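Before the break, one more example. Copy the sequence into your notebook; we will annotate it together after we see the structure.
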Amino acid sequence: MEKVLTPPRVPAFFAARTPFFYGWAVLACLCFAGFARQGPAVSTLSVFVKPLIDDFGWSRTALSGAVSLGGILAAVISPIIGPFLDRAGSRLLLCYAVLTTGVALLLLSLTQSLAMFYVLFCFARMNWASPFELGIYGAVNNWFVSRRRFATSVATLAQMAGLVTMPVIAQLAMLHGSWRGGWLAIGVLTLVAGFLPTWLLLVRRPEDVGLHPDGAAPPATAGSAVLPLAPEPDFSRAQALRSSAFWLLLAYTVLVYPIQAGISLHMAPNLIEHGIAPAITATIVSTFSLMSAAATITCGFLPRRLPIRYPMAAIGLLLTVSPLLMKAIAAPGEAYLAAALFGFGVGGILTLLPIAWADYFGRANFGAIRGVALSAQVIAQAIGPLISGGFRDWTGSYQASLSVLAVFGALSVVAALAARRPQLG
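Here is what the structure looks like once it is written out:
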């Protein structure tokens, strides 16, 4: 019989007897872990770029390479750790991710060479792209089914809060010291925010403590006045790989993530090349972030009965229109509109795709199935900046890359609409 890995300090009777559904406590833990996740995020690294270049003389290309290499490592390990997640649950995986990421960030304060920086940052970035992603959404999907869209939006919103907060904390620490103090500050914040709640409170699945997803009552029996919940899909990884829905969702993933990464990294330079002042550019980028958060909240209130392929197609349409608008920017108002549509699209894909994988293939083997897809996702994210940067260097502008990314967006709409929920048997 499979061993149930429940936290030793949270006995089953406590989790089952809280005056509220214990899944909300689990969701709170995941919010803390998601916040802590953002220490090795690109936006956090960005505040260290100039100090590191000034001290060591490294190139921006060298620093960017650490982000890409970390993503490649995540693509390698994701299919391996996915089945572990299904067996052991998110608690051990997230505790490992938080602890080792926090230690790596602390050790970055001791950096003396580019090789040392690569070892530590690539390891932390690998955790960011794979164990955190699988662990957070694996737990959300185990505890929530009918409320999955709302719970996923809350977990994603907490991660966006970390994206905003971590660079600010690092910058404040550097104002009162050096970049080494900045790494220490976010390393400590990662450990304090993420480790203890996860270690003490996270439980693998509601069934492990005698509960049911969403706090629902046990399934209704025949003749009951209460209608039973629709049965949840239960695909193995092999069964999922044989379905057209898997490959269509995968196609959608590899089409939208180059848009997300390619435009996000190069948004500010593109706006400046269109004659937008740097100060205004900063507020436009902030608009992008705010609209991403707005999309995450909106996705949480989508009706459960609405097939998820329709909002995914709508998001793909936004990611088609926004690059085309960015090509024609002539005034700040047009830039704000393009950034707002793009930001809403990015928030949508970050929230909807984890939901889609669970809705289509179920909870039991979510890690194994999502682990395969995550490998393709992180590679797609690495390709996006290469498309934008390569076309910029080749043609002297971002116009060609934006056209290519708009085509990706249009194809993603087709993939989303074709990705109908699969049926076993």
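The chain is about 75% helix and 0% strand. The chain has a mean pLDDT of 88. Try to locate both features in your own notes.
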